Amino acid sequence: MIEKDRPSKDRPWVMRTYAGHSTAAASNALYRTNLAKGQTGLSVAFDLPTQTGYDPDSPLARGEVGKVGVPVPHLGEMRRLFEDIPLVEMNTSMTINATAMWLLALYQVVAEEQNPDATPEEVAAQLAGTTQNDIIKEYLSRGTYAFPPEHSMRLIADMIAYTVHRIPKWNPINICSYHLQEAGATPTQELAYALCTAIAVLDQVKASGQVSEEDFEKVVGRISFFVNAGVRFVEEMCKMRAFVELWDEITRERYGVQDPKMRRFRYGVQVNSLGLTEAQPENNVQRIVLEMLGVTLSKGARARAVQLPAWNEALGLPRPWDQQWSLRLQQVLAFESDLLEYDDIFDGSPVIERKVNELVQGARAEIDRVQAMGGAIAAVDSGYMKQELVSAHAARRGRIEAGEEKIVGVNIYETTEPSPLTADLDAAIQTADPEAEQAALDSVAAWKAQRDETEVAEALAKLAEAAKSDTNLMGPTLVAARAGATTGEWAGTLREVFGEFRAPTGVSGAVGVTQAVGEAGAELAAVRATVKATGDELGGRLRLLVGKPGLDGHSNGAEQVAVRARDAGFEVIYQGIRLTPEQIVSAAVAEDVHCVGLSILSGSHMELVPAVLDGLREAGLGDVPVIVGGIIPDSDGRRLVELGVAAVYTPKDFGLTEIMGGIVEVIRKANGLD
């Protein structure tokens, strides 16, 4: 029997891996290798100093250079990053927010240099890609903001107006619900807060007067989203269909967009990293596959671009082979299966229709609640959205600890055979180049030595002058990039005009697990009793300082520790993210704390923790125990203990109440009570 002709296939989504590390030269080599393996787009990870607007020689950049991405402190490093990669032929996604305008300017200038026979306008018109540029979620979850909300929104509106007129194939903003889910958002909250962010951005662009009514549809058409997909793939797929429905409704009814193509919900996805486990990490492979299915199975709600984490991201920095494995997962689905040959296989399903409707109704109600407060920015300033996320995350952690939410290898089926993948833990991940920071420092020094300082000073002065007016800042930013200004100088100039900002932590008003019942409630009650008894023995309530040293803005873990410590009876001192070791030591002295807990997920623990330990000793607090939590390889953990850390906690230590019990024991031991 001869097989009938198969139906024609849809084009696959853009396939990316999120990559960048150590140096621009090393990252460039990785990009070219990944493109040769079949990757169809680039997704650039920048290091934390670049993301937050600091040069490598800033005190806040200590230990953070090249750790979670590539450092790009000036135009020369952007040239190295894309050497031998023709930018006018590439589709590049840049995970950059506070400094998005600056990095886009550097990218455009490099493209101009690669095409000297074309005008800057002709080059810009050929560029395609995305800048993440969603600052609201930075205040809520990721922490790489640089300026206050109103000024950050001005930068976003300026960028959107510029790209619509000059770089028409560029997505100037990627509204991110991804990080909201990482911070604990339920599907309803993820839908609502992401769409409230989009509304705030579109309202800001409209109010700026930089885009005509005729061009506003183009603005809506260039808005894209970056979404998280968890392991509950039916619910996640329904969430995507709900996004499609709600976005069509908002753009049609609120903004009067008539062209259905301009109302299309365009999104890329990185599947859930929060759900990856350190325990039995091989299970992460099937988690990643299930999460990928949630954003690819439904044709009407299929992602336009997909990037997958690696199986070992809960252990440390993935190696090139690990990233290749994740790329191959996508390629097998797209090219070996028949998924792309059919229309939407879920249309007409009453189960799917019911779940989508439930999510749509819940999201509409939460959107209305936020809009009644004055919109997303007002809900950030008041702390409402942050508090809701911290509470939702606390509830989820409580369900996991109580065994209501099951995670294989973590709180169920914990027995395991030895894994060949992790037989040598130190070899199972990539180690950040220890010379990267010095290389970046040398690069900045050499760059400044060869540039025209007068030209730079004049460009930055004009940038400051423009920032005090309503001039679109993309023009002065391009001038500063061409003159040779650095990332820190661009951001520092704007900080002087716009001021600094510290986002609400959401901890004080968050709902914890004080009403836990059963075994979980009994465990918490026992720890609370020990906390009180120990405080009585030491003459007062136990005080725990939770600190986030360096530029790591992923505060979810620190917030959950702070909330659970409060529920366990500690007096908690938590001042939020982005503190120097010196500031943490000063707080420990001022608050006369019994224990210092440090949370670091950026890989900078071997630089920052010893600095805190040394500072405490110099301040006469060498007897105050220090505990550390984060993604810390075993060898680093052992070294930290040798240096004087009392306890090290990693993602496998998911029981927060158990951790609280450990903290009490550490305090008792340090004070000779046992």
TrEMBL record:
Q: Which residues form a coiled coil?
A: none
Which cofactor(s) does the record list? Answer: adenosylcob(III)alamin
Q: Which SUPFAM superfamilies has this protein been placed in?
A: Cobalamin (vitamin B12)-binding domain, Cobalamin (vitamin B12)-dependent enzymes
Which InterPro entries does this UniProt record tie to the protein? Answer: Acid_CoA_mut_C, Cbl-dep_enz_cat, Cobalamin-bd, Cobalamin-bd_sf, MeMalonylCoA_mutase_a/b_cat, MMCoA_mutase_a_cat
Q: Which UniProt keywords apply?
A: Cobalamin, Cobalt, Isomerase, Metal-binding
| Domain B12-binding: from-to ranges | 541-670
The record ties this protein, via Pfam families, to: B12-binding, MM_CoA_mutase
| Family of the protein in this entry | Belongs to the methylmalonyl-CoA mutase family.
Q: Subunit structure, per the record?
A: Heterodimer of an alpha and a beta chain.
What is this protein's name? Answer: Protein meaA
Q: Which organism is it from?
A: Nocardioides koreensis
Which lineage do the record's taxonomy fields give for this organism? Bacteria, Bacillati, Actinomycetota, Actinomycetes, Propionibacteriales
